[in-house]
């Protein structure tokens, strides 16, 4: 426990501790668990194999977002006909089966409430201030805008949360991003977060929970705050948080799953205590002056490649650090821009307005205001507008925004992740350049060889109209009133009756209260006799002697480790061929894969078991556990790097892979000379040491948390360990029902339409309704 003044993060963390062991490793209670189709199949399979139920269906809410086409659903008949890509269809259908089998509330494709997980949670009031929120998705950080502790987890952890409603965590550091003064006209929270990431880098927040504070933050709407926290993961942070205030309460009040009556009063009284105390300790403080920021976009292949719109692309010849210089050269080459090119002169091919960063109603209003009265430039082949949820879409249509976009030549779509990562039919063709409101501009993210530039919705819309990037402050609005459309997002709350007065909802709510450990139809059966698969039963990790492959790169993101097209599996194995796919293979004239000279394709590294990375932040970006699965499938058992992305680091341990942080100088001087020659290294986990083949000590001591070491050395299954703490979990649940009663109810408060429906029967059908 933190003694003395506490930060917002300290408070929310400490209020959720179920158990703390001597090493400081904590079991945290999870209030809200969002589930989507990409990262859950293997987790449900693990539960099934072990005969475990979902402990708290009422704390769980599922939807489909990544794989689904965004074309009109007017003629939607069934998933079989609507989703053409077989692997995408399988993932969606697998989720539909799992939510039925395990009794998890679900918004399917026929529900207006379907949307991107990070849009629907807040929209429904499922996300509440002071909660812990997790999802098998890195942008769970979005929910921190409410003063929730929200972070992305891997699939093994999804299984852990489904089974135990807890997660094993150790405390992160506290970081404060203080934004003084007011943002200038034309500058949005997207520009602000891009500016911050440009300043501190994608590893700037590694190991920390980032609190955003100051006058500029307090002035932001909830939606703008969500865009900020959404991208805190792009700064490497474990989570981003903003203290809840009147703006927060106003947004949350009256949402379908928000507390009401006396519970509301009790909740607000508690929420008002959730702020950083005067004198609270921050390990790091970054101060930003809002007035220094102008509209900002990215020029390269990392979110940290952010520059003011009036700047030119950087010049690598002026950079002395060799790793930075070669990274910059590669980024410019990939993105197809020369050094010193004015950003405003760069022409685009496509526009994407949407994603969990900027697919909410305010974003669409801002973009529509720019577009009104104009038409797409001739060189722009396609401009997609993809609402974050069905309800955002409905609201936009009520305001006539769809008509404004369509009149300007934009394509108006159904809710989903769409072109943010191209797991569905919305992709860029090779070398196409996109003005995108999403959050990641990694190589290949929006399609093989695609070129992504991140920016605000107004800037992306303006790029579509002008055909090139443009400073939004130079754009002539045709109807200046449009920028301040008066309908508030509260109108999204148009709904029939309050959930409190609905008897079905009441019944479900009380069912939710006793749902803990109540087996569902399927899981009520006795545990299956087959051994628990999932993440259980790993091989113990003791001493590893293996060939070490050198990798001279920084900021290797998980999109690069395993690109999006390989995420459509419902298994954990068979991912070897997708590992570093874009780097390991190139297409020949017939479109067949041919190996490149990438290090893992070259002898003796084809049998490497250790990866030695020279640059920082290995495994940054997405939470996909497919990254360690692919590395493991290839044969890699340990990765040595100066630093790691937090979620990847965690995911590695869950799969028996040991990530080791070693000082960059030591890597360059002692380890790389051996790996460059195809030599072997010895990683000794019990002694926390790295040696060469002859036994000479290269790294005297490396750090590893005692709990993680214990699990790895003994090949232990986290879930099994946590289940032994059942008594503590129960005690916490008793406390929660009393002290935090306003968090009870959760997704069990959703109103169900129990009228039988025609085939195809899916939970999407049975739960379809306006809210
Ligand atoms: C598919 C999922 C694991 C991934 C994430 O974690 O972020 C995706 O949402 C992304 O944006 O890359
Ligand atoms: S970042 Fe993109 S792909 Fe990931 S959840 Fe958000 S919208 Fe979906």
Write the layout of secondary structure elements.
Layout lengths: L7 H7 L2 E4 L5 E4 L2 E4 L5 H10 L9 E4 L15 H4 L3 H17 L3 E2 L9 H8 L7 E4 L13 E4 L2 H10 L1 E4 L3 E8 L8 H12 L7 E6 L1 H4 L3 H9 L8 E3 L4 H7 L8 H11 L12 E6 L6 E3 L7 E3 L13 H14 L14 E4 L1 H4 L2 H11 L10 E4 L4 H9 L2 H7 L3 E2 L20 E4 L14 E4 L2 H10 L36 H11 L29 E9 L6 H4 L19 H4 E3 L5 E3 L14 E4 L12 H9 L3 E4 L4 H9 L3 E4 L2 H13 L3 E5 L4 E4 L4 E3 L6 H9 L3 H6 L2 H14 L23 H4 L5
Parallel strand pairs: 3-4, 3-6, 4-5, 6-7, 9-10, 9-12, 10-11, 15-16, 15-18, 16-17, 18-19, 20-23, 23-24, 24-25
Antiparallel strand pairs: 1-2, 2-8, 13-14, 20-26, 21-22, 26-27, 27-28
The structure holds 3-isopropylmalic acid and iron/sulfur cluster.
The site of iron/sulfur cluster (SF4) has 12 residues, from helix 13.
Description:
The chain is an alpha/beta fold and 771 residues long. It has 3 domains: 8-292, Aconitase, domain 3 (2-Layer Sandwich), CATH 3.30.499.10; 296-474, Aconitase, domain 3 (2-Layer Sandwich); 543-714, Aconitase, domain 4, CATH 3.20.19.10. Helix content is 31%, strand content 15%. It is built from 27 helices and 28 strands. A 7-stranded mixed beta sheet has the order 25-24-23-20-26-27-28. A 5-stranded parallel beta sheet has the order 5-4-3-6-7, with helices on both faces. Strand 26 and strand 27 (689-692) form a beta hairpin. Helix 2 packs across helix 6, helix 7 (189-200) runs parallel beside helix 9 (222-230) and helix 14 packs parallel to helix 17. The longest helix is centred in the first third of the chain and has 17 residues, at 86-102. The chain starts with 7 loop residues before the first helix and ends in a 5-residue tail after the last helix. Residues 504-533 have a biased composition (Low complexity). Residues 504-534 are annotated as: Disordered. Belongs to the aconitase/IPM isomerase family. It catalyses: (2R,3S)-3-isopropylmalate = (2S)-2-isopropylmalate. Residues 10-467 form the Aconitase/3-isopropylmalate dehydratase large subunit alpha/beta/alpha domain.
């Amino acid at each position: 426990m933190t003694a003395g003044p506490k930060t917002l993060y300290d408070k929310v963390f400490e209020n959720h501790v179920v158990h703390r062991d001597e090493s400081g490793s904590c079991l945290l209670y999870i209030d809200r668990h969002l589930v989507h189709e990409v990262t859950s199949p293997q987790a449900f399979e693990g539960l099934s194999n072990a005969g475990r139920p979902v402990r708290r269906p009422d704390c769980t809410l599922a939807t489909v977002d990544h794989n689904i086409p965004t074309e009109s659903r007017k003629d939607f008949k069934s998933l079989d006909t609507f989703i053409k890509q077989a692997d995408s269809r399988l993932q969606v259908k697998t989720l539909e089966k799992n939510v039925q089998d395990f009794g998890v509330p679900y918004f399917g494709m026929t529900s207006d409430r379907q949307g991107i997980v990070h849009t629907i949670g807040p929209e429904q009031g499922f996300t509440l201030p002071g909660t812990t929120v997790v999802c098998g998705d890195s942008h769970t950080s979005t929910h921190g805008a409410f003063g929730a502790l929200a972070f992305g987890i891997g699939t093994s952890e999804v299984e852990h949360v489904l089974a135990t409603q807890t997660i094993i965590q150790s405390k992160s550091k506290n970081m404060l991003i203080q934004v003084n003064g007011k943002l200038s006209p034309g500058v949005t929270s997207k520009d602000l977060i891009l500016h911050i990431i440009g300043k501190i880098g994608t590893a700037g927040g590694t190991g920390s929970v980032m609190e955003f504070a100051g006058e500029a933050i307090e002035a932001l709407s909830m939606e703008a705050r969500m865009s900020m926290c959404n991208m805190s993961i792009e700064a490497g942070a474990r989570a981003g948080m903003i203290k809840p205030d009147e703006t927060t309460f106003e947004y949350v009040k009256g949402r379908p799953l928000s507390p009401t009556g006396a519970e509301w009063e009790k909740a607000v009284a508690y929420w008002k205590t959730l702020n950083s105390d005067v004198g609270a300790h921050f390990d790091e403080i970054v101060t930003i002056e809002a007035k220094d920021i102008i509209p900002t976009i990215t020029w390269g292949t990392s979110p940290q490649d952010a520059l003011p719109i009036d700047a030119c692309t950087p010049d690598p010849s002026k950079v002395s650090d060799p790793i930075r210089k070669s990274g910059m050269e590669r980024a410019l080459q990939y993105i197809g821009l020369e050094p010193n090119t004015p950003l405003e002169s760069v022409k685009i091919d496509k526009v994407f307005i949407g994603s969990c960063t900027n697919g909410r109603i305010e974003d669409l209003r801002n973009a529509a205001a720019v577009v009104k009265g104009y038409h797409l430039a001739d060189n722009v082949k396609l401009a997609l507008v993809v609402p974050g949820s069905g309800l955002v879409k409905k609201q936009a249509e009520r305001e006539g925004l769809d008509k404004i976009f369509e009149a300007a030549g934009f394509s108006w779509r159904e809710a989903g992740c769409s072109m943010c990562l191209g797991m569905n039919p919305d992709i860029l063709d090779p070398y196409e350049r996109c003005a995108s409101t999403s959050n990641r501009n990694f190589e290949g993210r929006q399609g093989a060889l695609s070129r992504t530039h991140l920016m605000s919705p107004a800037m992306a819309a303006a790029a579509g109209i002008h055909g090139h990037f443009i400073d939004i402050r130079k754009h002539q609005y045709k109807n200046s009133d449009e920028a301040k459309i008066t309908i508030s997002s509260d109108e999204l709350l148009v709904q029939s009756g309050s959930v409190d007065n609905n008897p079905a909802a009441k019944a479900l709510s009380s069912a939710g209260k006793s749902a803990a450990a109540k087996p569902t139809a399927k899981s009520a059966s006795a545990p299956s006799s087959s051994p628990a698969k999932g993440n259980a039963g790993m091989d113990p990790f003791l001493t590893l002697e293996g060939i070490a492959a050198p990798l001279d790169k920084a900021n290797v993101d998980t999109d690069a480790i395993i690109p999006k097209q390989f995420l459509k599996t419902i298994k954990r194995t068979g991912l070897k061929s997708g590992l570093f796919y874009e780097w390991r293979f190139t297409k020949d004239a017939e479109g067949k894969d041919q190996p490149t000279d990438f290090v893992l394709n070259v002898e003796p590294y084809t049998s490497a078991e250790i990866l030695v990375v020279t640059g920082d932040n290995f495994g940054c970006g997405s939470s996909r556990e497919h990254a360690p699965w692919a590395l493991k499938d290839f044969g890699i058992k340990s990765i040595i790097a100066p630093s790691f992305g937090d979620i990847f680091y965690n995911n590695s341990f869950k799969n028996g892979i040991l990530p080791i942080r070693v000082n960059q100088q030591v890597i360059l001087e002692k380890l790389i000379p051996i790996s460059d020659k195809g030599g072997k290294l010895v990683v000794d986990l019990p002694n926390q040491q790295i040696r060469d083949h002859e036994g000479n000590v290269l790294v005297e001591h490396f750090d590893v948390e005692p709990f993680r070491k214990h699990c790895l050395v003994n090949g232990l299954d986290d879930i099994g360990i946590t289940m032994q703490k059942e008594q503590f979990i129960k005690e916490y649940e008793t406390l929660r029902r009393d002290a935090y009663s306003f968090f009870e109810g959760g997704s069990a408060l959703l109103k169900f339409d129990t009228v039988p429906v025609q085939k195809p029967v899916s939970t999407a059908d049975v739960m379809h309704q306006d809210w």
